[in-house]
Design goal:
Blueprint (H helix, E strand, L loop, with lengths): L7 E4 L4 E10 L6 E8 L6 E5 H4 L2 E4 L2 E4 L1 E5 L6 H38 L2
Antiparallel strand pairs: 1-2, 1-7, 2-3, 3-4, 5-6
């Protein structure tokens, strides 16, 4: 499976992690691909692992299980996407308030009309 920035992976012990970036580690005599990932529950926790180890199996409860299991893509929104989503949300909020006010006015007119007929 191809690793991509933003993907969510579940660790075999239950933690959920988001891939922050892919890197090359050159701190040893040989270069190797590395995965930099972040705890989705505590974004201050950032980890690194070789790509091979990230995709390897682990012996857990006497059986081989994937160290990480792919959960899904998590689209990271750009600032412009966030601003656009906020504007749409605000517009929907104003429209909803407008509809509620209109319904209250109509209800008030119906009640007033009903009482004036009595």
């Amino acid at each position: 499976m191809e690793l991509k920035v933003g993907q969510i992976w579940k660790h075999y012990k239950g933690g959920m992690y988001r891939i922050v970036t892919l890197a090359v580690n050159n701190q040893s005599d040989e270069l190797y691909d590395a995965v930099v990932y972040q705890d989705t529950n505590d974004e201050s926790k950032i980890w690194t692992q070789s790509k091979d180890r990230f995709l390897s199996n682990e012996n857990y409860n006497s059986e081989a299980v994937p160290r990480f299991t792919f959960i899904g893509d998590n689209k990271i929104m750009s600032d412009s996407d966030l601003k656009s989503a906020r504007r749409k949300s605000i517009k929907i909020g104003f429209i909803t308030i407008g509809v509620i006010v209109l319904l209250v006015l109509i209800y008030g007119l119906l009640v007033a009309t009903h009482w004036s007929d009595m």
